[in-house]
Amino acid sequence: MSIIGKPVEEVSTPALLLDLDKFQWNIDKMFKFARKAKVNVRPHSKTFKAAAICNKLIEAGACGVMTQKLSEAEVLQSSGILYGDKNILISQEISDPEKLERLVGMTVAMGQGKVITSLDNLQEAEMISRIAERWKVKQDVLIEVTHGRCGVNPGEDAVKMAQRIVKLKGLNFRGIYGYENPVPRETALERNKKTVDTANAIRAAGIEVEIVSAGSTATYEVTGTYPGITEIEPGSFVFGAGKEGSGYGWETINDVYFKSSLTVLTQVISDNFENRVVTDAGAKVMSGGHEGVEPVVLVQADGEYLDFERVGLSEEHGTIYFKEGDPNRKKLRWGQKIEFTPNHCCTTVNQHDEIMVVKDGYVCSIWPITARGKYQ
Amino acid sequence: MSIIGKPVEEVSTPALLLDLDKFQWNIDKMFKFARKAKVNVRPHSKTFKAAAICNKLIEAGACGVMTQKLSEAEVLQSSGILYGDKNILISQEISDPEKLERLVGMTVAMGQGKVITSLDNLQEAEMISRIAERWKVKQDVLIEVTHGRCGVNPGEDAVKMAQRIVKLKGLNFRGIYGYENPVPRETALERNKKTVDTANAIRAAGIEVEIVSAGSTATYEVTGTYPGITEIEPGSFVFGAGKEGSGYGWETINDVYFKSSLTVLTQVISDNFENRVVTDAGAKVMSGGHEGVEPVVLVQADGEYLDFERVGLSEEHGTIYFKEGDPNRKKLRWGQKIEFTPNHCCTTVNQHDEIMVVKDGYVCSIWPITARGKYQ
Questions:
Q1: Cys bridge to A252: A245, A361, B120, B238, which one at CB 3.0-4.6 A?
Q2: What is the pLDDT at residue A245?
Q3: Is the domain of B288 the same as that of B225?
Q4: Three-state DSSP class for A208?
């Protein structure tokens, strides 16, 4: 029996919920900003992993999507997001020859320019080029410029690699990618400068640089208005998080604000004691989230955020502890359905097979988390 | 093209691996102990969630399995583990009327006594009883005795609840369950005493107590030899964890030892810098694991454990950092496949759709993680 059309209270717990209006508000805000700033938005689908959400974002004006993994791109390629000039950018390097075959095979199947990959290694570039030449296509690539994880050094190292890449017959060099992390404004500006300076240095060497991709939800305004950045890659803005602010881990870096649209519906399964109640949502459902973030979840009961002492997430239980005599304890009763907000939306969504889409308190759709568990 | 029969080096990364010989060694050790101690073993399938592993354990002599969730029981019921007198015990309380219908429906379908549930609440007991009476079956139940999470107080409270339960016509009271956590020997003994004393107090009230269930991998010897305990519920022993010892979080409580059989195969995808290499396995693949456990993963390269400064698990990257000049850095190269050992096997397995079974370095089978994502 379908849950569609039923009130959210009838959904079996634990279940992942999306408030459609808040979600749409977040999308509208991001794309209104982008139109004004004249910057492309390439949402990072590692956050939401759902083809339905990719489609919503493409419809809102996204230039394409970013995926972290090849297998995410593989399952999203057939979702209708690749029409017109839209494309997928894979932001993680690939060092496996078998996967590089899969990458180029996807380009053969979907059309040249539909799938772009980032790289930081000449071996990878040469391997891709050989495969593409065999297929008689060109594989679009970007160079990742490092800000501390993968990548090559900004500046001279990146220029040298671009010079090598443009000589490889199977590759089509599109530009550079520099993930800058969710950082404060000043750090983002420093990193943006390095990224854009690198793009200009490559141009000075006579090589066209079309795409200069950077930015996260936490830095979307800073990076999205930085001259020379052509596209930003926010992901978590679709979900917001927390009572106030955006992103995850309860941080509101750079005064970014999006509405909190993602919760996990859970239920009080045990209430025999004065200082605690136990719910059916533990770490497997909420994900471990961000270490050291307090509180580990936010709790809503009867639509209101609830104060408590702490929540302990064991594997399959969420235990809400109260100080002795706290009147908030009485707001919770056996069998009651309540909502947890996770402190890391990206890892939490990945725990689930589907998300219940809720409008005005009623379930209107169930969206599969299409790329859940796609790690390769 | 199937990977079966191929060397593990050909498996695409990241992938969950199980060393079959070490896994079997762990099973043999546990059941050898149990036969000598004359205690039943009811492995906790929340750890491994795979029907194939349930079957291996039933074959080794398990009296049944434990699941944390109703939906785990639902997907495992059809896996062939319920022959003869074998059964499934659901260890988490249920407060949802719709799920209680599902619980009793399973008993109707599979046969009375095949599915036992634990409870700590009279409303739940009465709801189950009404449903069972309607179906004209009796639903087997246990009372959970609390050691700090769900449950009722040991002693008088448990006796009172047993007295109420045996009056309910739709229920068949089988005994008590007291999860004692992975605790040191002394604490386990205190908790065992409370559990067994409670069983005896219920018996003194004229009620038969057949099952007295407790114990984890960390306490299997302590609890498994405690007079009056009829069954133990270890889970993580099948995987062991770490270079030495067992369980998870690198703890070797009570000198428990099982072999480390579970790893995640990952690959070096970026190696441009002297102080770090980056792999394709991050927190989504390894799970957040246990907070504050250092190192967050163990690293094997070319079959040997590797020393490093720290591993940073971001969502989809595992970055291995080295101190300047550390010769271990040179043991890692771009494209190399290495193995991570997770510090929490239960949450890690739940991230994956399947596990690659490896014997002598070759893949011999792929086992689906049948109950992955079954949280309800």
A1: A245
A2: 66
A3: no
A4: coil
Residue A86 within any structural domain of the chain: yes
Whether B239 and B327 map to the same domain: the answer is no
Consecutive H or E run containing A55:
helix A51-60
Residue A290 shares a structural domain with residue A247? no
Q: Is B98 on the interface with A (CB under 8 A)?
A: yes
> What tokens appear for A274 in the block?
């004065």
User: B293 and B212, same structural domain?
Assistant: no
At residue A292, the pLDDT reads 81
Q: Are B145 and B172 contained in the same domain?
A: yes
Phi, psi of A91 (to 5 degrees): -95, -5
Per-residue confidence (pLDDT) for residue B292, from 0 to 100: 81
Domain assignment present for residue A161? The answer is yes
The chain A residue lying nearest B145, using CA atoms, is: A272
Q: Are residues B214 and B266 in the same domain?
A: no
Interface contact flag, A149 B270, Cβ < 8 Å: yes
| Residue B216 structural domain | 20-243
Contact between A8 and A17 under an 8 Å Cβ cutoff? The reply is yes
Give residue B301's Cα distance to chain centre: 28
Please check whether residue A49 is in contact with residue A298, taking contact to mean a CB–CB distance below 8 angstroms: no
Subunit contact A284:B352, Cβ cutoff 8 A: no
Q: Check residue A317 and report its DSSP letter.
A: -
Peptide bond into A14 cis (omega under 30): yes
CA dist B9 and A212 (Å) reads 36
Within a domain: A311: yes
Quick one: how far is CA A51 from the chain centroid? 13
Last residue of a domain, one of A222, A255, A288: A255
Mean of all residue pLDDT scores within chain B: 96
**pLDDT higher than threshold 70 for residue B197:** yes
Residue B146, domain member (yes or no): yes
A84 and A232 assigned to the same domain:
yes
CATH number of the domain within which B270 lies: 2.40.37.20
Half-sphere exposure of A341 (CA within 13 A, CB side): 29
How far is CA A57 from each of CA A66, A262, B333, rounded to the nearest angstrom?
Answer: 12, 17, 38
Residues of A in contact with B350 (CB under 8 A): 284, 351
User: pLDDT tens for residues B57-69?
Assistant: 999 999 999 999 9
Partners of residue B278 in chain A, C-beta under 8 Å: 93, 149-150
- Give the whole-angstrom CA distance, residue B344 versus residue B318: 16
Please tell me the distance from the alpha carbon of residue B222 to that of residue B44, in angstroms, as a whole number: 17
Smallest Cβ distance to A291: which of B152, B288, B346? B288
* A69, A288, A316 ranked by CB distance to B69: nearest: A316
Q: What is the mean pLDDT of residues B185-196?
A: 98
- Each residue of A154-211: pLDDT tens digit? 999 999 999 999 999 999 999 999 999 999 999 999 999 999 999 999 999 999 999 9
Chain B CB within 8 Å of residue A85 CB? no
Domain boundary among A255, A278, A293: A255
3-class state of residue B67 by DSSP: strand
B88: left (phi over 0), alpha (psi -120 to 50) or beta: beta
Residue B247 has pLDDT above 80, yes or no: no
Helix ranges (DSSP H) in chain B: 20-37, 51-60, 70-76, 97-110, 122-135, 156-165, 185-204, 220-224, 283-286, 345-349
Find the mean pLDDT for residues A101-122: 97
Whether A351 and chain B come into contact, CB under 8 Å, resolves to: yes
pLDDT band at B347, cuts 50/70/90? very high
Q: Are residues B303 and B219 in the same domain?
A: no
Give the phi and the psi of residue A15 in degrees, each rounded to 5: -145, 145
Taking CB atoms and an 8 Å cut-off, how many pairs form between chains A and B?
167
Helices vs. strands in chain A: H and E counts, helices first: 10, 18
How many domains are contained in chain A?
Answer: 2
CA distance A58 to A247: 21
* Over residues B218-239, mean pLDDT: 97
